[in-house]
Amino acid sequence: MKYIYIVLFVLLFTACSTQKLEPQEPLVLDENKSVNIKLVLPKKDTEIHDLKNIPQDVDYFLKNINSSILKYDVQEKYESSYFSVWNIDKPKEDVESAKWPFFLYKAEQSYGENLQPLKQEFFDNMLESANFGAYATVNLKAVTLRETNIRAFPTIRPLLLDPTLAGEGFPFDYMQNSTVHANKPLFISHYSKDMEWVYVLSSFASGWVKTSDIVILGDNDADIWQKAQQIQITKENVPIYTIDGRFLFKSRLGMMFALISQSDNAYTILTISSYKDSKPLFTESIISKDIASRGVISLNQNNLGEIVREVSKTNYGWGGMYEQRDCSSMLRDMFAPFGIWLPRNSYQQSKIGKVIAFNGMSDDDKIKLIKDKGIAFETLLYKKGHIVLYVGTYNDEVIVFHNTWGIKTKKDGVEGRVIIGKPIFSTLRLGKNQENYDEEAEILKNLKSMNILTQDAF
Predict the structure, then answer these.
(1) What is the mean pLDDT of residues 75-88?
(2) CA–CA separation, 418 and 406 (whole Å)
(3) Boundary-marking domain end, from 294, 309, 338
C-alpha cells in the first residue's frame, strides 16, 4: 500500500493558454478621444439551432458505449507528467523563449483596461520588472496555495487586441496564459525585480504568478508527496477544509492529492497552506469518497457521464479566467481523472495519440473518416484555435462536445458573434442556420486532423 505513514510524513515535511496570435493593425486614435465600440451581442430572442435540436444530455450519446472496452489505466505515466516539474534542475526553455510575449505584443497595437492603446513605456516597464537577467537562478520546487492565474507579463493588467473587432476585447485578455489549480506542483525560475511576482513552470504552462500564491518545497517534501498513493478529484466546487475546519479552496477536476489514510466513507489527504517566510504549512483534510477516487478512474459509461456533467458546470473562460475554462482547458481537466494527460493548448492536444490528418479532404470525406475511424469520447477533432471531442452521431450527423465562445457571423464584410459562452453538444456545422452565418469559419470546413487519445498515446 502507498499510504503515507503520518509520523514519518510529519517529521520530513516540517524540516510548496495561451494562444499566440498575430497582432492586428493598430486602431489610430487621438489620445484625448475614447474608443467607439459597438458591442456584438446576441439578441435576447436569438435561437441557437443546435442547442434546440441536438440533445444536450450526455447520457444520450453514452448509451451505446461499451464500458468493458473503455478501461484505460495509465496512472504511473499520468503521475510522471503531473509531477514532471519537480524532477528537473532548471527550466527546459531558454530565456529567449520565455520572453515570447515581448516579441509578440507591441505598443500602439495592444490595448489596456481603459480601451486605449498601450504605450511603449508599459512594455519597457514590464520587461524591466520581468528581471530576465535572473532567469533560472532560483530553481526551486513550489506548490500553489489557491487557484492561480499564470500571466504572460508580471501584472494583473489586461492586454487586449483591437477592442472594436468582434472576437477581441473582453474577455480576451492576452496576458492570461492559463490557470493552475490549488496545491499543484510548480518550478520556480526567478523573481520579478520587486519580488511581487515569480516566473514558474507547471507541467503544462509557464509564466508569472503572484509570489503570495505559492510556497516553496524542499526536495524531500516533493519526493515523498509524489511517491505516495494519489487521490483524484472527481467533483467540482466542493469546499475543502483543514481538519480543524479552516477553509482552503474548492475542488476542481484535475486536482490530485497525496493519501494519508481512509475510512469507509472518506479520504484523509495532505493539503498545504501558507506559513511565515514562504514556508509551507502541511495539514490534513478529510474529503468524502463521493468527490474523489483512489487513483485514476475507468473510462467507462458511468464515469464519463459524471465527469462531463461536472465540466459542464463552468462557462467559457479565456485562459481559465474567473475560474472558468476554455476549449482546451475543459478537455484537459475532463480527461485528468481518467489518467490521460493532455497539454494545455489545442494544437498540442491535437498531437496526442493516433493522429489522422485531413489534408486535401472534402467535407464529406472528413465526415466519413470520422464515422469510420473515430471512437466516441476518445477522439479529438482539431481546427486552428479550437478543439472538440467527438461523441457519436445524431440523425446521422457527427456530434461533438466543446466549450465555445460563439458563432462567427459576417455581414457586408464586417465580422460579428452570436455568443454562446459555455460547453455544448453540436454538429460540426454549428451556426449554419443563423442569420449572416460565416461559412468560411465553419468547424467542419476548417478541420485539420483527428486524434484518438487511447491509441498509441504513450
Answers:
(1) 94
(2) 5
(3) 294
* Domain identity same for 283 and 139: yes
Closest by CA position to 342, among listed 271, 223, 253, 421: 253
Domain end (from 259, 294, 329): 294
Residues 200 and 307 in one domain: no
Strand boundaries in 238-378, DSSP class E: 239-241, 247-250, 256-262, 266-274, 280-288, 292-294, 354-357
Q: Which whole number is the average pLDDT over 95-105?
A: 97
Q: Looking at the DSSP assignment, which residues form a beta bridge with residue 448?
A: none
Give the closest residue to 104 by CA, choosing from 176, 20, 178. 20
Using only C-alpha atoms, the chain has a radius of gyration, in whole angstroms, of 23
Query: In this predicted model, what pLDDT tens digit does every residue of 167-195 receive, in sequence order?
Result: 999 999 999 999 999 999 999 999 999 99
Contact 390, 380 (CB under 8 A): yes
For residue 376 the three cell numbers come to 466516441
Distance CA 426, CA 386 (A): 14
Whole domain around residue 311: which residue ranges?
A: 49-73+298-452
CB neighbours (10 Å) of residue 43? 8
Average pLDDT over residues 83-93: 96
pLDDT band for position 67 (cuts 50, 70, 90): low
Give the count of beta carbons closer than 10 Å to the beta carbon of residue 89: 7
Q: In this model, does residue 77 exceed pLDDT 70?
A: yes
| Grid cell digits, residue 384 | 486552428
Overall average pLDDT of the 24-34 stretch: 41
Residues facing 223 on adjacent strands: none
* CB-based contacts of 456, cutoff 8 Å, min separation 6: 353, 354
For position 401, which CATH number holds?
3.90.1720.10
Are residue 309 and residue 395 in the same domain, yes or no? yes
The 3-class secondary structure across 339-361, one letter per residue, is CCCCCCCHHHHCCCCEEEECCCC
Residue 41 lies in a domain: no
pLDDT for the residue 1? 52
Number of domains in the chain: 2
| 259 and 306 belong to one structural domain | no
CB distance 167 to 408 below 8 Å: yes
State the Cα–Cα distance between residues 213 and 233, nearest whole angstrom. Answer: 21
Distance CA 392, CA 374 (A): 8
Backbone angles phi, psi at 208, to 5 degrees: -100, 130
Distance in angstroms (rounded) separating the CA atoms of residues 455 and 458: 8
Cross-strand bridge partners of residue 294: 231
**Cα separation, 112 vs 453, whole angstroms:** 39
Q: Where are the alpha helices (DSSP H) in 99-192?
A: 100-104, 120-130
